[in-house]
Amino acid sequence: MIRTFAIILTILFSISTFPAESVAQNNPDPAGAFVRSMVVPGWGHYYADSENWNRGKAHLGAELALIAGYFGLRTRASSLQEQYLTFANLRAGVTISERGRPFQLAIGEFNTLQEYNDFQLRSRNWNRLIDDNPENQWNWNSESDRLRYNELRSDRDRVQNQLPAMIGLMAVNRVVSALSAYNRARNASATPELSFIPAGFYSNSRGVIASVNFRF
Predict the structure, then answer these.
(1) Which helix (H) or strand (E) holds 157?
(2) What would the pLDDT profile of 97-119 be if each residue is shown by its tens digit?
(3) Which of 94, 129, 183, 213 sits a CA distance of 20 to 30 A from 167?
(4) pLDDT at 16 over 60
(5) DSSP 40
(6) How many structural domains are present in the chain?
(7) What's the pLDDT tens digit per position in 84-102?
Protein backbone atom coordinates (compact mmCIF):
# COMPACT_ATOMS: atom_id res chain seq x y z
CA MET A 1 0.00 0.00 0.00
CA ILE A 2 2.96 2.36 0.56
CA ARG A 3 3.82 2.06 -3.13
CA THR A 4 0.20 2.84 -3.98
CA PHE A 5 0.27 6.10 -2.09
CA ALA A 6 3.67 6.98 -3.58
CA ILE A 7 2.30 6.66 -7.12
CA ILE A 8 -0.82 8.66 -6.27
CA LEU A 9 1.32 11.41 -4.73
CA THR A 10 3.50 11.44 -7.86
CA ILE A 11 0.43 11.98 -10.04
CA LEU A 12 -0.87 14.71 -7.77
CA PHE A 13 2.55 16.39 -7.89
CA SER A 14 2.42 16.26 -11.68
CA ILE A 15 -0.98 17.93 -11.60
CA SER A 16 0.43 20.71 -9.48
CA THR A 17 2.75 21.65 -12.37
CA PHE A 18 -0.13 22.08 -14.83
CA PRO A 19 -1.03 25.77 -14.23
CA ALA A 20 2.30 27.28 -15.24
CA GLU A 21 2.39 25.26 -18.45
CA SER A 22 -1.28 25.84 -19.19
CA VAL A 23 -1.01 29.59 -18.89
CA ALA A 24 1.85 29.59 -21.37
CA GLN A 25 -0.22 27.71 -23.91
CA ASN A 26 -2.66 30.10 -25.57
CA ASN A 27 -2.94 27.84 -28.58
CA PRO A 28 -2.72 24.20 -27.39
CA ASP A 29 -1.10 21.64 -29.62
CA PRO A 30 -3.40 18.63 -30.22
CA ALA A 31 -0.45 16.24 -30.37
CA GLY A 32 0.87 17.66 -27.12
CA ALA A 33 -2.52 17.16 -25.47
CA PHE A 34 -2.60 13.57 -26.72
CA VAL A 35 0.84 12.74 -25.32
CA ARG A 36 0.09 14.38 -21.98
CA SER A 37 -3.07 12.35 -21.46
CA MET A 38 -1.22 9.17 -22.40
CA VAL A 39 1.22 9.93 -19.57
CA VAL A 40 -1.37 11.12 -17.02
CA PRO A 41 -5.06 10.83 -18.00
CA GLY A 42 -6.70 14.25 -17.70
CA TRP A 43 -3.48 16.20 -18.14
CA GLY A 44 -4.20 16.83 -21.82
CA HIS A 45 -7.67 18.20 -21.02
CA TYR A 46 -6.19 20.63 -18.50
CA TYR A 47 -3.54 21.62 -21.02
CA ALA A 48 -6.18 22.28 -23.68
CA ASP A 49 -8.61 24.16 -21.45
CA SER A 50 -7.75 24.73 -17.79
CA GLU A 51 -11.09 26.45 -17.19
CA ASN A 52 -13.20 23.51 -18.28
CA TRP A 53 -11.61 20.11 -17.89
CA ASN A 54 -14.35 18.11 -16.20
CA ARG A 55 -13.85 15.26 -18.69
CA GLY A 56 -10.19 15.22 -17.72
CA LYS A 57 -11.06 15.09 -14.02
CA ALA A 58 -13.17 12.01 -14.68
CA HIS A 59 -10.29 10.26 -16.45
CA LEU A 60 -7.85 11.29 -13.72
CA GLY A 61 -10.18 10.04 -11.01
CA ALA A 62 -10.62 6.74 -12.83
CA GLU A 63 -6.84 6.38 -13.10
CA LEU A 64 -6.32 6.96 -9.40
CA ALA A 65 -9.06 4.45 -8.57
CA LEU A 66 -7.55 1.85 -10.92
CA ILE A 67 -4.06 2.33 -9.51
CA ALA A 68 -5.35 1.99 -5.95
CA GLY A 69 -7.36 -1.08 -6.98
CA TYR A 70 -4.38 -2.67 -8.72
CA PHE A 71 -2.06 -2.34 -5.74
CA GLY A 72 -4.87 -3.33 -3.42
CA LEU A 73 -5.25 -6.57 -5.36
CA ARG A 74 -1.51 -7.17 -5.32
CA THR A 75 -1.44 -6.69 -1.57
CA ARG A 76 -4.38 -9.05 -1.16
CA ALA A 77 -2.75 -11.69 -3.37
CA SER A 78 0.50 -11.44 -1.41
CA SER A 79 -1.36 -11.79 1.88
CA LEU A 80 -3.26 -14.87 0.69
CA GLN A 81 -0.05 -16.46 -0.57
CA GLU A 82 1.64 -15.91 2.78
CA GLN A 83 -1.38 -17.43 4.51
CA TYR A 84 -1.45 -20.68 2.53
CA LEU A 85 2.33 -21.07 2.68
CA THR A 86 2.27 -20.71 6.46
CA PHE A 87 -0.82 -22.90 6.72
CA ALA A 88 0.87 -25.74 4.82
CA ASN A 89 3.92 -25.51 7.03
CA LEU A 90 1.89 -25.62 10.26
CA ARG A 91 -0.82 -28.12 9.27
CA ALA A 92 0.96 -30.40 6.82
CA GLY A 93 4.53 -30.13 8.08
CA VAL A 94 6.08 -29.15 4.75
CA THR A 95 7.74 -26.00 3.48
CA ILE A 96 6.51 -24.99 0.02
CA SER A 97 7.66 -21.37 -0.28
CA GLU A 98 10.34 -22.34 -2.82
CA ARG A 99 8.50 -25.26 -4.39
CA GLY A 100 6.95 -25.19 -7.84
CA ARG A 101 3.27 -25.10 -8.67
CA PRO A 102 3.02 -28.90 -9.36
CA PHE A 103 4.17 -29.68 -5.82
CA GLN A 104 1.82 -27.08 -4.32
CA LEU A 105 -1.06 -28.61 -6.25
CA ALA A 106 -0.07 -32.12 -5.20
CA ILE A 107 -0.27 -31.42 -1.47
CA GLY A 108 -3.69 -29.90 -2.02
CA GLU A 109 -5.01 -33.04 -3.72
CA PHE A 110 -3.70 -35.74 -1.36
CA ASN A 111 -3.39 -36.03 2.40
CA THR A 112 0.12 -37.54 2.33
CA LEU A 113 3.03 -38.06 -0.02
CA GLN A 114 2.43 -41.81 0.12
CA GLU A 115 -1.17 -41.40 -1.06
CA TYR A 116 0.02 -39.20 -3.91
CA ASN A 117 2.73 -41.62 -5.10
CA ASP A 118 0.41 -44.62 -4.78
CA PHE A 119 -2.11 -42.90 -7.03
CA GLN A 120 0.56 -42.03 -9.64
CA LEU A 121 1.82 -45.63 -9.63
CA ARG A 122 -1.68 -46.99 -10.17
CA SER A 123 -2.20 -44.47 -12.97
CA ARG A 124 1.25 -45.30 -14.42
CA ASN A 125 2.28 -41.67 -14.31
CA TRP A 126 5.90 -42.53 -13.64
CA ASN A 127 7.13 -39.05 -14.49
CA ARG A 128 4.93 -37.49 -11.79
CA LEU A 129 6.34 -39.41 -8.85
CA ILE A 130 7.86 -37.32 -6.07
CA ASP A 131 10.98 -38.53 -4.25
CA ASP A 132 10.18 -39.89 -0.82
CA ASN A 133 12.52 -37.82 1.31
CA PRO A 134 11.94 -35.72 4.45
CA GLU A 135 11.61 -32.39 2.66
CA ASN A 136 8.88 -33.76 0.36
CA GLN A 137 6.83 -35.56 2.99
CA TRP A 138 3.57 -33.97 4.07
CA ASN A 139 0.76 -35.16 6.28
CA TRP A 140 -2.35 -33.04 6.76
CA ASN A 141 -3.78 -32.98 10.26
CA SER A 142 -7.30 -33.33 8.84
CA GLU A 143 -9.28 -33.29 5.61
CA SER A 144 -10.70 -29.89 6.50
CA ASP A 145 -7.17 -28.46 6.77
CA ARG A 146 -6.35 -29.66 3.28
CA LEU A 147 -9.55 -28.15 1.91
CA ARG A 148 -8.79 -24.88 3.69
CA TYR A 149 -5.36 -24.83 2.06
CA ASN A 150 -6.96 -25.30 -1.36
CA GLU A 151 -9.39 -22.50 -0.66
CA LEU A 152 -6.63 -20.05 0.26
CA ARG A 153 -4.56 -21.00 -2.79
CA SER A 154 -7.57 -20.71 -5.13
CA ASP A 155 -8.46 -17.30 -3.69
CA ARG A 156 -4.91 -16.15 -4.28
CA ASP A 157 -4.96 -17.34 -7.91
CA ARG A 158 -8.33 -15.67 -8.48
CA VAL A 159 -7.08 -12.32 -7.16
CA GLN A 160 -3.80 -12.64 -9.08
CA ASN A 161 -5.69 -13.26 -12.32
CA GLN A 162 -7.53 -9.96 -11.95
CA LEU A 163 -4.32 -7.92 -12.19
CA PRO A 164 -3.97 -8.07 -16.02
CA ALA A 165 -7.56 -6.84 -16.35
CA MET A 166 -6.75 -3.83 -14.15
CA ILE A 167 -3.73 -3.02 -16.32
CA GLY A 168 -5.91 -3.33 -19.42
CA LEU A 169 -8.46 -0.90 -18.00
CA MET A 170 -5.70 1.61 -17.23
CA ALA A 171 -4.47 1.36 -20.82
CA VAL A 172 -8.00 1.87 -22.18
CA ASN A 173 -8.52 4.86 -19.89
CA ARG A 174 -5.31 6.45 -21.18
CA VAL A 175 -6.20 5.94 -24.83
CA VAL A 176 -9.74 7.28 -24.44
CA SER A 177 -8.48 10.26 -22.44
CA ALA A 178 -5.75 10.98 -25.02
CA LEU A 179 -8.18 10.90 -27.95
CA SER A 180 -10.63 13.15 -26.11
CA ALA A 181 -7.88 15.60 -25.17
CA TYR A 182 -6.65 15.64 -28.77
CA ASN A 183 -10.11 16.62 -30.01
CA ARG A 184 -10.48 19.24 -27.29
CA ALA A 185 -7.13 20.83 -28.17
CA ARG A 186 -7.88 20.69 -31.89
CA ASN A 187 -11.17 22.50 -31.39
CA ALA A 188 -9.54 25.05 -29.09
CA SER A 189 -6.86 25.67 -31.72
CA ALA A 190 -9.42 26.52 -34.39
CA THR A 191 -8.91 30.20 -35.30
CA PRO A 192 -10.94 32.19 -37.82
CA GLU A 193 -9.21 33.75 -40.82
CA LEU A 194 -10.76 36.95 -42.14
CA SER A 195 -10.07 37.85 -45.77
CA PHE A 196 -11.34 40.55 -48.10
CA ILE A 197 -11.78 39.95 -51.81
CA PRO A 198 -12.83 42.61 -54.33
CA ALA A 199 -16.34 41.85 -55.56
CA GLY A 200 -15.18 42.39 -59.13
CA PHE A 201 -13.02 39.30 -58.82
CA TYR A 202 -16.15 37.17 -59.23
CA SER A 203 -18.40 39.56 -61.13
CA ASN A 204 -18.65 43.06 -62.55
CA SER A 205 -20.14 44.41 -59.31
CA ARG A 206 -18.30 46.84 -57.12
CA GLY A 207 -17.40 46.50 -53.47
CA VAL A 208 -15.57 44.06 -51.24
CA ILE A 209 -16.54 40.55 -50.17
CA ALA A 210 -15.49 39.53 -46.65
CA SER A 211 -15.06 35.83 -45.88
CA VAL A 212 -14.33 34.07 -42.60
CA ASN A 213 -12.67 30.66 -42.67
CA PHE A 214 -12.19 28.27 -39.75
CA ARG A 215 -9.42 25.71 -39.79
CA PHE A 216 -9.76 22.57 -37.69
Answers:
(1) helix 143-160
(2) 999 999 999 999 999 999 999 99
(3) 183
(4) no
(5) S
(6) 1
(7) 999 999 999 999 999 999 9
The answer as to whether 66 is a domain residue is: yes
Q: Which domain holds residue 42?
A: 1-92+162-191
pLDDT of residue 94: 96
Q: Is residue 84 part of a domain?
A: yes
Size of the chain in residues: 216
Whether 59 is in a domain gets the answer yes
Q: What is the rounded average pLDDT of the residues 149-167? A: 96
State the sign of the Cα–Cα–Cα–Cα dihedral 103, 108, 114, 119.
Answer: negative
Residues facing residue 193 across a β-bridge: 213
Distances (CA, A) of 195 to 3, 7, 117, 147: 57, 51, 90, 81
Q: Does residue 6 lie within any of the structural domains?
A: yes
Nearest-angstrom CA–CA distance, 185 and 31: 8
